[in-house]
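Subgroup meeting minutes
Present: P.N., E.W., G.H.
Scribe: E.W.

1. P.N. recapped why we're keeping a running log of single-chain structure predictions: easier to compare across weeks, and new members can see raw inputs and outputs side by side.
2. G.H. added today's entry (123 aa).
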Amino acid sequence: MNLQESGEMYLETILILSEKKNDVRSIDICEEMGFSKPSISRAIHLLEDGGYLDIDNSGYITLTDLGREIAEKIYERHKVLTALFTAIGVDEDTASEDACRIEHVISDKTFQAIKTHMKEHNM
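Output recorded in log:
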């Protein structure tokens, strides 16, 4: 499975939910993302088939090492880009929304340059 933006968003959401509560189920993802149960179910099973997450017999969802690695990468991008945008005067909501769009397409090279710049300028 070639992971696309939507798959990354699901993994990131599962990571965030798992930090808030120990047990994550499909219904939690539905509530967080605002998608229908059938849409979530289909995506979750595709991610499971791709080796990005596991679902136990009780329906609890956990990220595999691969899924966690991708989710943490995307979430770090989100946090760093949001911080950058707010530092240059963008309001928090807009900064977060823009970061959410950009986090999936920005290159590793550009992202590293942003992190380096922010560190050098105490941002």
